[in-house]
């Protein structure tokens, strides 16, 4: 049963009608007194609750009711309803234990999706719930406990529409996990659109994300479809979301809230149906405390958080990853298969890997290219290993012979990323180029972050 709490009879009626048509059992009450009585006597599966009642213009009555509901039924998910101008109330509600929030007027389809997601994530897991072993885990290598725990979470959430925030150090494979969520979802046959938010300037944000019409601004010589429209019915992956400036965060929050946007040069609102997956290596909670990341956006994107372990916490996966990267390198360059001695694998398994999987991948590829040997030993990897704060000297000289300019540039970028532990801003500064220019080169050379 879904319990609706709202003092507006029209809203109670419209919500009840919509939910009954969707197959839910519904009970609607006008205020806190009736709500508490219902919650005490019954166990609703989900609660839809307004935050503003006529007796309170500050929303304090709504917050008090939420806290009381969570005392009686802590396991029941609560979705809050509030006006856009009172969205801070919803943030306070999330801090008090609410599951999600929507703003009025809501999008019926989006609200139904959020209800379905809340019920799916809070109901007892069925006996036949998929596990990590049943996932399509293409390109995900490893069997460690840390990785298996992540994949178990992916299996549980993939088929819902929950927004997901993937966190972890640079080089831990956040994009691969985002792809796995999409590939195992009900949207698998639809677009998966990747956006590196750190590479989009503030002035181009709306054009890139929402599109523009010809003539919308000086350089708009033709129509452009935005990323959200390209992702319609599929998934949009917002990488480096912690790099988004505050003015762009407001614009992003608007479209995430009701899945509606306006193309530049066209005032007609457009609706999309997209699932949001975000990723960052930044501490967003700290950024919220420092007022550099909006708290309301933080709660909108992280209904579910997936934290990826660093490579140093999943060392048993290192031999499997090294073998995988070696086979890919041989296939890509038409080289014979390279094997590893036991001491080579021991050497690789002991390294600290501040650059995580990306660092291991680059080390394996570089060592294979420099050493034309059927079996690599520890000394081969030791010679190519870039120790922290140690400039790359002899390696660069010995590996340039026979390489094209593009290959040299690609290797330079990879080595710089390793030296700066995947920090794009520092890597760009070290290379003497802008962050946007570095993003273009990463895309050109197929370098994944």
Nearest-angstrom radius of gyration? 25 Å
Weakly predicted, low-confidence segments:
392-399
Overall CATH architecture of the largest domain = 3-Layer(aba) Sandwich
Enumerate the strands of the largest sheet in spatial order, edge to edge or round the barrel: 2-1-3-4-5
Work out the number of β strands.
16
Report how far the terminal alpha carbons are from each other: 44 Å
Largest sheet, if any?
5 strands, parallel
Number of helices: 20
Which structural category fits the helices and strands?
Answer: alpha/beta
The whole-number mean of residue pLDDT values reads 87
Shape: globular
The CATH C-level name of the largest domain is: Alpha Beta
What share of the residues lie within helices?
Answer: 40-55%
Structure description:
The strands form five sheets. This protein has a five-stranded parallel beta sheet, sandwiched between helices. Strands 7-10-13-6-14 form a five-stranded parallel beta sheet. Helices cover 46% and strands 14% of the residues. Helix 1 (9-21) links the parallel strand 1 (2-5) and strand 2 (26-29). The protein folds into three domains: 2-122, Response regulator (Rossmann fold, 3-Layer(aba) Sandwich), CATH 3.40.50; 134-309, P-loop containing nucleotide triphosphate hydrolases (Rossmann fold); 312-444, Helicase, Ruva Protein, domain 3. The chain contains 20 helices and 16 strands. The relative contact order is 0.08. The protein has 449 residues and is α/β, with parallel strands linked by helices. It has helices spanning 9-21, 32-41, 60-72, 87-95, 108-122, 145-157, 174-183, 205-210, 227-230, 246-258, 284-289, 295-301, 318-333, 342-350, 356-370, 378-384, 394-399, 405-419, 424-431, 435-444, and strands at residues 2-5, 26-29, 46-50, 78-83, 100-104, 164-167, 192-196, 211-212, 224-225, 235-239, 260-262, 269-271, 275-280, 304-307, 339-340, 375-376. The two termini are 44 Å apart. The chain is globular and about 75 Å long.
């Amino acid at each position: 049963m879904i319990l609706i709490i709202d003092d507006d009879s029209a809203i109670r009626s419209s919500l009840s009608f919509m939910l009954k048509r969707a197959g839910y059992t519904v009970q609607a009450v006008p205020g806190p007194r009736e709500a508490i009585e219902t919650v005490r006597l019954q166990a609703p599966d989900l609660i839809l609750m307004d935050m503003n009642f006529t007796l309170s213009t500050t929303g304090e009555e709504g917050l008090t009711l939420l806290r009381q509901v969570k005392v009686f039924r802590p396991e029941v998910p609560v979705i809050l309803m509030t006006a856009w101008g009172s969205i801070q109330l919803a943030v306070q509600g999330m801090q008090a234990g609410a599951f999600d929030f929507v703003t009025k007027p809501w999008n019926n389809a989006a609200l139904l999706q959020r209800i379905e997601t809340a019920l799916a994530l809070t109901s007892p897991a069925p006996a036949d719930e998929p596990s990590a072993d049943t996932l399509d885990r293409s390109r995900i290598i490893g069997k460690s406990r840390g990785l298996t725990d992540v994949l178990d979470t992916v299996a549980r959430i993939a088929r819902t529409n929950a927004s997901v925030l993937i966190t972890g150090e640079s080089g831990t494979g956040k994009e691969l996990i985002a792809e796995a969520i999409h590939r195992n979802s009900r949207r698998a046959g639809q677009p998966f659109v990747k956006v590196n938010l750190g590479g989009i300037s503030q002035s181009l944000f709306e054009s890139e994300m929402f599109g523009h019409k010809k003539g919308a601004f000086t350089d708009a010589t033709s129509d452009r479809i935005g990323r959200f429209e390209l992702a319609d019915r599929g998934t949009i992956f917002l990488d480096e979301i912690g790099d988004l400036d505050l003015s762009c965060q407001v614009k992003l929050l608007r479209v995430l809230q009701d899945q509606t946007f306006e193309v530049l040069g066209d005032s007609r609102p457009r609706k999309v149906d997209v699932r949001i997956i975000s990723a960052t290596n930044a501490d967003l909670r700290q950024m919220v405390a420092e007022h550099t990341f909006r708290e309301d956006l933080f709660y909108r994107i992280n209904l579910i958080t997936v934290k990826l372990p660093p490579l140093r916490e999943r060392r048993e996966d290192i031999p499997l990853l090294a073998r995988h990267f070696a086979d890919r390198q041989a296939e890509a360059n038409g080289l014979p298969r390279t094997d590893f001695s036991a001491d080579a694998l021991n050497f690789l398994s002991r390294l600290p890997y501040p650059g995580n999987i990306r660092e291991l991948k680059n080390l394996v590829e570089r060592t294979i290219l420099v050493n034309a040997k059927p079996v690599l030993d520890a000394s081969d990897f030791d010679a190519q290993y870039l120790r922290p704060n140690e400039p790359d000297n002899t390696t660069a000289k010995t590996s340039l012979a026979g390489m094209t300019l593009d290959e040299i540039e690609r290797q330079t970028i990879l080595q710089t990323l390793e030296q700066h532990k995947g920090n794009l801003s520092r890597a760009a500064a070290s290379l003497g180029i802008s962050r946007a220019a570095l993003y273009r080169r990463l895309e050109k050379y197929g370098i994944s972050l």
